[in-house]
Design goal:
Blueprint: H1 6-12, E1 32-36, E2 42-45, E3 49-50, E4 58-59, E5 67-71, E6 78-82, E7 88-94, E8 103-107, E9 112-116
Antiparallel strand pairs: 1-2, 1-9, 3-4, 4-8, 5-6, 6-7, 7-8
Cofactor: Zn(2+)
Enzyme class: oxidoreductase
Catalytic activity: L-methionyl-[protein] + [thioredoxin]-disulfide + H2O = L-methionyl-(R)-S-oxide-[protein] + [thioredoxin]-dithiol
């Protein structure tokens, strides 16, 4: 697994949330792939990213089998985790009608890393 900063550990390993509107990828729109910061697994294409106005990066679709969903401890929200390493990504919301897919993966920038189109994606790491 990749070495994480204390802030990344707080979000990815301890299910924290970063501040809205002050994170790396909220207003970021470039062509490429978003990978898990902990294990490098490809999670989202830039084609699925949209501006939801929520303050965090939003995607309406993940790569097949890349993201696992679990009911939050509060029973009200659905947490999303990297299917490879189990790292906390954020939450998924359905039925908001923000895109045709009617899905918003609300993701912490600290949980992902961007690989520009044309650059090699690092190998996925396994425990």
């Amino acid at each position: 697994m990749n070495k994480l900063t204390p802030q990344e550990e707080r979000v990815i390993l301890h299910k924290g949330t970063e501040a809205p509107f002050r994170n790396e990828y909220d207003e970021f729109f470039a062509d490429g792939t978003f990978i898990c910061r902990r294990c490098n697994a490809p999670l989202f294409s830039s084609e699925s990213k949209f501006n939801s106005g929520c303050g965090w990066p939003a995607f309406d679709e993940n790569y097949p089998n890349a993201v696992r969903r679990e009911t939050d401890a509060d029973g009200r929200r659905t947490e999303i985790l990297c299917a490879n390493c189990g790292g906390h990504l954020g939450h998924v919301f359905l039925g908001e009608r923000l895109t045709n897919k009617n899905t918003r993966h609300c993701v912490n920038s600290l949980s992902i890393r961007f690989i520009p189109e044309g650059k090699e994606i690092p190998p996925t790491l396994h425990e």
